[in-house]
Structures are given as structure tokens and as C-alpha cells.
Amino acid sequence: MSGFAAVDVIRTKRDGGVLSDEQIDWVVDAYTRGVVADEQMSALAMAILLRGMRPAEVARWTAAMIASGERLDLSGISRPTVDKHSTGGVGDKITLPLTPLVAACGAAVPQLSGRGLGHTGGTLDKLESIPGWRATLSNDEFVAQLAKLGAVICAAGERLAPADRKLYALRDVTGTVEAIPLIASSIMSKKIAEGTGALVLDVKVGSGAFMKSPEDARELAHTMVELGGAHGVRTVALLTDMSTPLGLAVGNAVEVTESVEVLAGGGPADIVELTLALAREMLDAAGLPDADPARALSDGRAMDVWRAMVAAQGGDPDAPAPVAPEVEIVRADRDGYLAAVDAYGIGLAAWRLGAGRARKEDPVSAAAGVVLRRRPGDRVRAGDALYELRADDAGRIAAARATAEAAVSVSPDPPAVPPLVIGRIG
Ligand code: URA
Fold this sequence. Notes:
The chain has 16 helices and 13 strands. The chain is of the alpha/beta class and about 425 residues long. It folds into 3 domains: about 45 residues, Transferase, Pyrimidine Nucleoside Phosphorylase, Chain C (Transferase, Pyrimidine Nucleoside Phosphorylase, Chain A, domain 3, Up-down Bundle); about 230 residues, 3-Layer(aba) Sandwich (Pyrimidine Nucleoside Phosphorylase, Chain A, domain 2); about 90 residues, Alpha-Beta Complex (Aldehyde Oxidoreductase, domain 3). Uracil (URA) binds next to helix 9.
């Protein structure tokens, strides 16, 4: 494929044109090989963000990203395979209870996850707070664990959609993450290359999500559902609220602890509700509509799979969670109702406490985070504890406290609490 110039591809999109299949195949491949420079891909990503893409362009772009690397073959797994992907939120630990739960109901869940960047947490960072747990598996280890337990959560290998790995890092520093065609192709290229037979998407909407409006979230969900279908992956999406954090815990170890509470049959009501809603969608998509995930949660079968899954990757499921040496409790200064707990602000506070990273090579603190003591809508009295700030280092608390205080408000009247599941596409 020669005869293309990156600048012509950029100009086509800059001027609102439609990229040809050949242009897309060439530019994605040439960028992966280092022939198209970062500054040229940055300009193209910005042109895509501003001008958009037609469905046929997004489909071709996704196919080119899949073709940039290997595609896993899960056809040897006897159970139906089904995965879940969340577009990212604050306190979103749903993958942790959901993966073993769906496996306990008879499906196999090949969950390739990432690390957090910015205010949203990463599933691998959370699991790495379990002493001994190992995120990196070879392809053979991944397939063997999936066949044996029906559940694996691990890091995506370097050879899976390498074009996306490179492009995502570039988008992150060029203000082009929010382009719907680029988000859709990024997520779906990885999920299709992973080899899952079915996929349930949790598309987040609200201050803590990439998509701030339901309209944008719906467009993203439609785009991804169509891409999945075009590649033979049964795909459905739930649109869910991310204006307030999920559950009470935001951080790494604190989110694992909360997930284990859910697996033990307790935990916050919203985490249980969303875990069960996604589990039902996954089991339907996997062709197991008669499975009963509520029962698998209450009778301990999901917990058994969790323990086996953690142990298979070197983790000790009985190890005590790391404890933060610095804890500050923030209390209500008046009577009223907890009105707003803004997801973005709480995510940022957890990040300031050390739970997240600013650059991808930074370490994260296992113990740091925010633990809410109240949920929006709860009645509070002056002096009641609203939330805890936890950190390894006392120097991090003041800035985190200022950020959290701006995100939390108490009002005289009860607030309207939005529903958790806003819509379904598929
Ligand atoms: N998650 C991804 O994997 N890619 C994006 O572009 C956004 C969120």
C-alpha cells in the first residue's frame, strides 16, 4: 500500500470529507509501524473529533485496528464466552463481583482490563492491591484459566490491537479522547480481538464519565452495538448513571473490600443492582437466560469462583486489605439531606490522595481513597460523618479535602435521585 501521504488523509478529514477504505487501512497500519508520525496522527485525531466519521468509516477504522495485532481464539472453550466493558467511571468496581458471578452461572468471562488514568480507576490497579496478585498472563495461561474457572481478569497483551495502544496514549495528551468514533473503535477493536462471543457494554453518563450527556452516550452505545454485530459479537449496551460514584468506596483496596462484601451477599444496594442487571444481560447474550445470578450471589457460588480466580493468579483471597495510615473524617456542618456527591469531584479527590496516576508509569497507592459514609438522599445531622479521606501521606489530605468539599453538598430538601439504569440499546 503506497501512494498515500499522511497530509492528504488529514486534509480530507479536516475539510469534512469521507476517508476511503484504502486511506484508513494505510494510515492505521503506517501509524502502528511508525511511518506516520505522532504529530500527523494527532492532527488526524483532532480532525475526526471535530468532523466526525460516517458509520462505514468507523467500521473500517475498527477493522484496521483489529488487523494491527493478533486475534485470540477462544473457540476451544466449552462454555459460551461473554465479556463486559464499562466506558469508565468513579467507584466502578462492578467487574470484580460480576466476572465470578457470571462464571458461576455457567458462562466464561474473558475480561482483559486496563489501568486507570486521570480521575477514573483501573480494574488492574484495584486487583493489584491484593498481595501476590499478578495481572500479566501469557495467552496460554489466559485460555487455560478461562477453560478451568470460567473467569479471568488480566492485562491485555501487547499484541492485542497495538494500533489502539499507541493511539490511545496519543489521544490522552492531545485532547482527543472524547471523539465518539475513536472511543467506539478503541473499545470494540480490543473486545473483538479478544475473541469473546458476546459483549455487554456499560456506557456511563454524567460528570464522572467521558460522555456527559445522554444523547452522546446513546450515540456511542449505538455505534458500538453496530460494530459488535458487524463482527459477529452479540452486543448490547446499558446506559447507566455516573453523576455520583458507584457504591461507597473509591480507590483500590477499598473497592476490592466493597466487592467482596457484595460477593458475600451484602454491599451497597446500587452495586448489587448494577451487578445483577449486567449479569442478566450477559447471561442472556451468552444464551443462558434461565440462569439465576441473584441466587449465585446469595448462595456463595460467586464467592467460590472469586477466591479461585484470585488464587489462580497468585493472590491471597484471605490477605487483610492494606490500611492507610492517614485517615481524615469529614462531617456535616448542618442538618439536612446529602444532596450532591459529584462523581468527577470525588474521583479527583481519590486521585489527589494517591489512588490514581498522572502519568502511565506512576505507581498508585493500594490503600488511598475516599470512603463515603452516606449516599445522596440520606438524611444527615450536623456532626455526622459524611466521608473519609485515606492516604499514605498526610501531605495529600488538604488538597483532596478541598476538592471533595466542593463536590459534596447538604441541602434542606431531599434531592431527586436519578435512576441507575437509564436505558438499553441492542
Ligand atoms: N476506553 C477505551 O478503551 N478507549 C477509549 O477511547 C475510551 C475508553
